[in-house]
Structures are given as structure tokens and as C-alpha cells.
């Protein structure tokens, strides 16, 4: 029985294994690779090193070494305790990110692995090998190292990932995996021990043994596993369903300047945008939380339009970071997007998005101004029911509906205060327009407005006032 997709096409599974997940989870916040880093966990009752980077290895630190000994060899060692719950959260976010390349993604937490059914994906992304290399490259840009394998069954794909294999057909599984030692098979420790006692050393030796004989001597675990491995028994995988929100964070070595936050923040934004592409969604609200040595700072983005553009989001966040004054060093950075929203994209070719939401230059300019100057410094205009020009508008938040339009014959800009003038210095073009109102609020006026032009050719708006004062004044400027 060969595994097949819902379209009856022979399945092809891409397994991604993350052998350094614990280290990558903690270390991907840093751009420099020459800083010694290691992960510790409790082994035989004491904290020991379970993973380390090249810089730590070069300092003499080794796997299984007690923490005290490791610190004595490298005083600058960045040591983190393993956090399995955080690793599981990372796997779920990676599954959300991978959803952009396959509609069937499964998380295999005990093995720190993901399974992607990619038979249908080849139409979009080319061969399975090409897709595998692309995914690993982009995961590397997020700070995660993955090894991959391709095979017709999920269990064979797991083995292929750990041993760098590409198994094309179910008939090739026996030959490709046969030389592997039985310790590499996904069997319980008791079953592996029993197989060793029976004299088995390789997978090929087990393949030759009749299933019924295996079941009698070892129970159903081994025979069932081999059937699933070889595609002779269905092996349904639980599909992962990506959430409609995003939340991720990174612990940092204490960072006292905002420039040091750009690199980890960029990786978080890349991860977010991958999850958005997977769901064909965008965001309009984004929050960055900075946990300080004491206290917390935050950055809120409320966008004019829905987007999933990495470049645009990072541009806005850089602007906000430049304005931020850190009172204390940052120890943790978090990124939250509480709601994914429908998002239209402009395609340039089959796979490349050139922009999101039909590029809107005005909204991008407004968002940059708000990021640089502050949201409160950039406002819109709300129209009011008042014939007096200076009382016919008020400021509004930009996310409020616009309700202001310029009447024909009225200028784009009003002066902060009417400015006295000599009408003989101007040439009258049109007018008068009489405005007489305001008696009910004690600010009544009676004016005749004219469109005038000065000697330099500038078109202005002037009025002759009769009440409460008499004289000529400039009040506006035509753009």
C-alpha cells in the first residue's frame, strides 16, 4: 500500500529536522557568531552542557561537561537553560511559517521535526530537492538550522532527514534505509535492545524477517513500524492548523542601545510575514514589547492599510526605535500581531509579491511620519457645520472617517490668524462672497471674501470685515 494524497497522487514527504533547536531558540537573537553559547540541562542530577556553538567548542567546552567546568573555560560563555515548552512553541511557529509551502504540515514534537506533504507543491516550487533547499535557506535567515530528507512515507522521510537521503519511490525504501543501523530506527529502547539480543544490526536484516515472526517475538510495535516505514500500512499524520495571530519573543544579552534591537526584530518580522503569507493575510496592528532590566517599553503600530510587507514594517519600526530612549538595558524583545486580516496582494509573476494592498503612497507616507514624529503629531481634518472658515474644521485621528472637503472657490490653506493688509497691493480676481453668521455664540461676524493676486502671482483669499472689526485681511492661500 503506497501512501497517497487526497488527489490519489503518490505522496512525497519532506521532513525537516532541527538538531540544534534548543541552541537556535536562544542564539538566533545575535548576529555575531564568535560569541560562545551553550545550552544546559539536568543530566544524572546535575546541570550539564547538551548543545554548544563553534565558538564554545573552540574554547574547549564539550557535550556533557558540567556547567561549572564550562564556565571556568570561557568566562564570556552565554549559558541558557533548556526550555522545552519554548521549543515546542518554536516548532508550532515554524509549522505556521512552513504552511506557505504546503497545505499539509505536521509537527512531530518529540523528534523536533516537521513533515510537509510536497507532491502538489512541486507545481509551484519545482522539484522537491529545490523546495527543500529553498526552505532550509530561508529557515537559516530566521536563525534555525534544519536538515532535510525526502521519501514516499512519513517514517522514511524522518530517517532520510537524519541521514541526508532522498528516496524517490516506495520501492527504493528498503535499499536506501537497509544499511542504516537499527539504533537509528524510531523504535522504543526496549525493542532496540531486544533486536540487538537477537543479533540484528541493520534495518535490512529486519526487513528480511517475516512480519508474523517479528510480531510473535517482539509484539506489534516493530512490525507495525516497519509496515508504516515501507508504505504497507496507512500512516495518517495529524495536520497542523496555523493560528490567526502571532506572538514570538527572544531573550537578549543585555542591550543598552536601540540599534542592537534591529537584528532580532528583523528576524521576528520575517517570521511573522512568512506566517502571514501562509494564511494569505496581513496585519494592521503590531506591537513590540521590550522587557528591560526593570520595567518595560512598548512600540505600537496602527497602520493605515493592511500589509504584510517586511520592508515596510521594518522601515516603520526602525523609525520608532530611533525615537526611543532606553532607560535600562533590554533583556527580552517580543512581537505580537493579535489579528490577521484579509489582504490583497499585487503579484509580479507566480511566486513574487511586489506589494500589498494595491500600493498606497499616501498611507505609507503617513505611517512613516507617524513613526518618526509620533502618532499624536500627524492628524487629519474633520469638517464642522460652520460657515466661518476658522471654525469649519477640527483635528481628527487618522483612523476616523474623513469628513472634510474644500468648497469651490476656497483655498487649501488658512493662515493661523487673519493678517491685516492693504487691498490696493492686490488685484481682485473674484468676489465678493458674503459670510454673515455666528450671532448665537457671541462670535458673530460679517465679511466679504475675495480671491486676489499679489505682484508675485500668488493667489490669496482676502476679506473685508465689517463686524466685529473693520478693515482688510488676508485669510488663506491657494496651493
Largest sheet: 5 strands, antiparallel
State the total count of DSSP E strands.
21
CATH architecture of the largest domain: 2-Layer Sandwich
Provide the structure class. Answer: alpha+beta
Task: List the uncertain runs.
Answer: 347-351
Number of distinct helices: 15
Can you characterise this structure?
This protein is an alpha+beta fold and 479 residues long. It folds into 3 domains: 13-35 and 76-229, 2-Layer Sandwich (Alpha-Beta Plaits), CATH 3.30.70; 246-375, Dna Ligase, domain 1 (2-Layer Sandwich), CATH 3.30.1490.100; 409-477, no CATH class. Helix content is 30%, strand content 30%. The chain is built from 15 helices and 21 strands. The chain has helices spanning 21-27, 54-58, 67-73, 84-98, 122-125, 128-142, 154-163, 173-177, 189-197, 203-207, 211-218, 220-229, 262-279, 310-323, 361-373; strands at residues 13-17, 37-43, 46-52, 78-81, 105-108, 113-117, 147-151, 246-255, 281-292, 296-307, 330-337, 341-342, 345-348, 352-356, 380-383, 393-396, 413-420, 427-437, 445-453, 459-467, 471-477. The strands form 6 sheets. Strands 8, 9, 10, 11 and 12 form a 5-stranded antiparallel sheet that branches. A 5-stranded antiparallel sheet has the order 17-21-20-19-18, with no helix packed on it. A hairpin with a 7-residue loop joins β18 (427-437) and β19. α11 runs antiparallel to α12. The radius of gyration is 33 Å and the shape is elongated. It starts with 12 loop residues before the first strand and ends with a strand.
